[in-house]
Write a structure and sequence with these properties.
- The complex is a heterodimer of chains A (113) and B (111).
- Chain A has 113 residues and is mainly beta.
- In chain A, the strands form two sheets. In chain A, strands 2, 4, 5, 6, 9, 10 and 11 form a seven-stranded mixed sheet that branches. A four-stranded antiparallel sheet of chain A has the order 1-3-8-7, with no helix packed on it.
- In chain A, a hairpin with a 2-residue loop joins strand 5 and strand 6.
- In chain B, strands 2, 4, 5, 9, 10 and 11 form a six-stranded mixed sheet that branches. A five-stranded antiparallel sheet of chain B has the order 1-3-8-7-6, with no helix packed on it.
- Chain B is mainly beta.
- Chain B is built from no helices and eleven strands.
- Classes of the chains: A mainly beta (113), B mainly beta (111).
């Protein structure tokens, strides 16, 4: 069974640009969550999707958005990039609930110059 | 929200030594997972252990849910065990759709 995949793996952008990251969950998993990891703040929850609906959103500005497609694949978008958005973005998938075992992808490392 | 504290924050071991990492959490939980973050950043699943004891090779974990802590044991450590170990928890209930992570324990195993 293939694991969680994320594309692209690395990304370099400049301030003011926007970026879209993609996540494909494990086959059969319907919940996809996104996390941001930075040295200063650790791992922080961005949002979670199930059956194309956002069920929860973390404490991030509206520049961070996401969506989920009918095949459970998810994308997150960051508009008007700031230097502080440089981070490792991790996607996790699970069967249905947060109390189900979560599996993480390899991450997308975003650098904003 | 739930608070998660991991200790120690840093640990340096000689190859072959044993270690115990601790995770304390502030509320009852329905999901507790241990992860190892590899040098490339991926979180590798070690244990899904909301309660009880599990073993996988040189690694084992115990969660005492009633006392709100979990322990990860690493025996006969190897240099490949180096990295950051995270504990993450979640609680079921309305609006509860996220894992809460501790700050991690950075393990360095030296030859």
């Amino acid at each position: 069974k293939a694991g969680v995949t994320q594309t692209p793996r690395y990304l370099i952008k400049t301030r003011g640009q926007q970026v879209t990251l993609s996540c494909s969950p494990i086959s059969g998993h319907r919940s996809v969550s996104w996390y941001q990891q930075t040295p200063g703040q650790g791992l922080q929850f961005l949002f979670e999707y199930f059956s194309e609906t956002q069920r929860n959103k973390g404490n991030f500005p509206g520049r961070f958005s996401g969506r989920q497609f009918s095949n459970s694949r998810s994308e997150m978008n960051v508009s008007t990039l700031e230097l502080g958005d440089s981070a490792l973005y991790l996607c996790a998938s699970s069967w249905r609930l947060v109390i189900d075992e979560q599996f993480f992808g390899p991450g997308t490392r975003l650098t904003v110059l | 929200g739930i608070q998660v504290e991991q200790s120690p924050p840093d640990l340096i071991l000689q190859e072959g030594a044993n270690s115990t990492l601790r995770c304390n959490f502030s509320d009852s939980v329905n999901n507790l997972q241990w992860f190892h973050q590899n040098p490339w950043g991926q979180l590798i699943n070690l244990f899904y252990i909301p309660s009880g004891t599990k073993q996988n090779g040189r690694l084992s974990a115990t969660t005492v849910a009633t006392e709100r802590y979990s322990l990860l044991y690493i025996s006969s450590s190897q240099t490949t065990d180096s990295g950051v170990y995270f504990c993450a928890v979640a609680k079921s209930g309305a609006g509860s759709y996220q894992l809460t992570f501790g700050k991690g324990t950075k393990l360095s195993v030296i030859p």
